[in-house]
From TrEMBL:
The lineage of its organism: Bacteria, Bacillati, Actinomycetota, Actinomycetes, Micromonosporales. Belongs to the aldolase LacD family. One of its GO terms (molecular function) is 6-deoxy-6-sulfofructose-1-phosphate aldolase activity. The keyword Nucleotide-binding does not apply. This is Aldolase. It comes from Micromonospora rosaria. GO terms for biological process: 6-sulfoquinovose(1-) catabolic process. It holds the Pfam family DeoC.
Amino acid sequence: MLAVDQREALRAMFAAHQSAPVTDQQLTDFKVAATRTLSPYASAVLVDKQFGWDAVVAAGVTDPGCALIAAADAFTGSATEFVADVAIDPTVDPATVRAQGAKALKLLVLWRPDEAPDGRIALATDFIARCREHGLVSIIEPVSRGPRDGGAYDHEAGIHAAARELGSLGADLYKAEVPTHGKGTEAEILAGCERLTEAITGPWVVLSSGVPADLFGQAVRTACRGGASGFLAGRAVWASVVGSPTLEADLAAVSVDRLRRLADIVDDAVTR
């Protein structure tokens, strides 16, 4: 599955390639182009309401064989984080997006070691209930973050703590960070994925944020060996073409190949 729901992080990626301010329209145009070019090779595509959903739906660029996932999270940034707080986006009405073709909703959940679990559990539980009420697949995406005061923390421990805390709340799909961000040995990544499988009730997939693009394919293969069902990722597929003056050509020449290779890895791994 393909993700194009990045927001201020995507703006920062564009900013690295230009001196002028990055406009909202640039982000929207990218999401429309990426969905048009890549959705024929994905089983689903994840799009955010803020910069992409309405334009993607209006343009009708999603391939008929690719399901639409609406990002139901509203982000608040800080001086040090693109996403410092998350809430359920009140502008994403489940009934409306379902009528527009959505099959699922996704919610990011920030796991911090210095915050009590009650708020995270309540947020995820509310989200899952909303999805069930409207016949939509629920996808939660817990990510390990540092404490509010910026102190040191164990990112890897947070990945597993989040899975133990949130992985059995009833979400239809759990979207997890790759253990070690794909930089450990194969044995280390495999062991981490097996721990996630033990903690998560139901299917789970990996995301690509934090994983070098050249390592993500092997990380996906190892994750599937450890119990994952595939991936829901964006940066590993299209990050290298952001800011290109020949975007659509590069999406077709570079990103399609990457997405197809990743899909082949999953197909091979889960059928063994």
